[in-house]
TrEMBL record:
It comes from Adonisia turfae CCMR0081. InterPro entries: RutC-like_sf, YjgF/YER057c/UK114, YjgH-like. The lineage of its organism: Bacteria, Bacillati, Cyanobacteriota, Adonisia, Adonisia turfae. One of its GO terms (molecular function) is deaminase activity. GO terms for cellular component: cytosol. It comes from the Bacteria. This is RidA family protein. SUPFAM superfamilies: YjgF-like (SSF55298).
Length: 128
């Protein structure tokens, strides 16, 4: 049976856009993509700050599911201007994602749903 996980700060996603930030099925938790969009729907124009806020949103989702980045088994990131900001993104990612690393795919895209968003991070976690 699937169970949605909805942090209070982002309940508007569930109510307005009709999707769950995360869904638990057995020992797996599947997370929707997270951008650096703040709960008030604003977004930083600074790439490093935006990447950090995206990871903080993923961390909030994981915490709501009583998980951490240590439980992430797969990560997919979608990037506007992938090569331009890749080194900055990797620097921030390494603050959150530690060895043993999850599987990871980084994909370049032309745009994301939030205007000005440079990255969307999607993870799958396993509760051991």
């Amino acid at each position: 049976m699937k169970k949605p996980i909805i942090p209070k700060e982002f309940s508007h996603y569930y109510n307005d856009w009709h999707f769950a930030p995360a869904v638990k099925i057995d020992k797996f938790v599947f997370f929707s993509g997270a951008t650096g969009t703040r709960p008030d729907r604003s977004i930083s124009s600074d790439p490093e700050a935006q990447f950090r806020e995206a990871f903080e949103t993923v961390l909030l989702y994981l915490t709501e599911a009583t998980l951490s980045f240590d439980d992430v088994v797969e990560m997919t990131t979608y990037h506007v201007s992938l090569r331009k900001y890749f080194d900055t993104f990797t620097k921030v990612k390494d603050e959150y994602v530690k060895d043993p690393y999850p599987a990871w795919s980084a994909i370049g895209v032309s745009e994301l749903i939030t205007e000005g968003a440079l990255v969307e991070i999607r993870v799958i976690a396993y509760r051991s």
